């Protein structure tokens, strides 16, 4: 027997738990299930276990709108975020809707039935299980959970020590007193280096090119003062909006005055590291601020490690690995016992899901994204994808709200399917993400595209999206609504 649900949510991470809450709160009559490929809740925050794992966004915006963050630290560590996600799921009974070890592989849409047939591989035996649903909501994140990006380095097999990718950090690794080279300069690298430096002999952050690094207090003094004086929900909402607006303001400044913003970021780095430090070499990227995400370091921890001499930054290129470390293009050799390849993620759109509509497989790179969540000519399917210039959850919460508005609209009017249609609209095409980060550029060929006009344009702007998704028309002339074919025939017969 094939089970049927009104909505199937794929993924029990930050986005999937948000979807569960919104479905229960806004569409209480809808049945739903969450299919999770792994054996536990939490997604990213359960998968990554490397030392120092933390958010690079404040928890007043990374947290859910409906669930106040009550801890003192705004820049939270991974275990605290995982606890927050799990506590949310338990508080609202969402955890009872999750089916673990269900790796969703295929989804086939039937227009005649207005249903998806969803296939998943269950457990270690990978037995095929099937479900049907009216609406499919993908909350599976944006990267490959099985493997990170690991470029091949010359003579890598000759290195006598241990090579680790942060996505697969070994449990109970003893690195005390070890010489460690961390390859990379992104969020993972700047998180790892100061944490490893607490026990390691010395840590080198080896980067091909620098990243903008900005320090921020781990605790939000404004938020903590408000929480002492106001009810938790009100204090949380006020802090959330303050941080959203500050983030938007800084992003606009970076876009409008990139040279001035860049100069200020470098000035702050120089102030942290002292007048003699070569900031121009090691913290001066070739791109403008917010062409890629800025790296956030709480309480200047990276700068403190560099100042203490426990860590150092080397800006160079790798020639090859040696038995004792890494030989650089400059001729210098870095000695290492452990090499950490913090070289990034591999994006995997919709968790690699194979999607077909009436027997025709969907080529997502040939589609346009609608309101940043649905796809041209693909009915009753949405995905949660966060912002590149702000907290992930801000956009995901809005997406969940909109999906519920869409489902309620269809119920009120007796519709069974909704499909974004380009029709005869003249829309120029752009890449899905206007971001120069390596993990994005490597994946652009496999991603959908966006248009230059609303609703095909993604604005990366929370205030604008809030107005459009929370208050804008659902029946906007672009979304095509339809009934089940059999029902349409019955209605036509009654009218004739």
The major β-sheet equals: 9 strands, mixed
Can you tell me the overall shape? globular
Structural class: alpha/beta
Indicate the CATH topology of the largest domain.
FAD/NAD(P)-binding domain
User: Would you report the number of β strands?
Assistant: 25
CATH architectural label of the largest domain: 3-Layer(bba) Sandwich
Strand content: 15-25%
Rg from Cα? 24 Å
Can you describe what's shown?
Helix content is 31%, strand content 23%. It has 496 residues and is α/β, with parallel strands linked by helices. The protein has two domains: 3-145 and 346-495, FAD/NAD(P)-binding domain (3-Layer(bba) Sandwich), CATH 3.50.50.60; 156-341, 3-Layer(bba) Sandwich (FAD/NAD(P)-binding domain), CATH 3.50.50. Strands 1, 2, 3, 4, 5, 6, 17, 18 and 21 form a nine-stranded mixed sheet that branches. Strands 7-16-8-9-12 form a five-stranded parallel sheet. The protein has a three-stranded antiparallel sheet with strand order 13-14-15, with no helix packed on it. The chain is globular. A hairpin with a 4-residue loop joins strand 14 (325-328) and strand 15. Helix 11 (392-413) packs parallel to helix 13. It contains 14 helices and 25 strands.
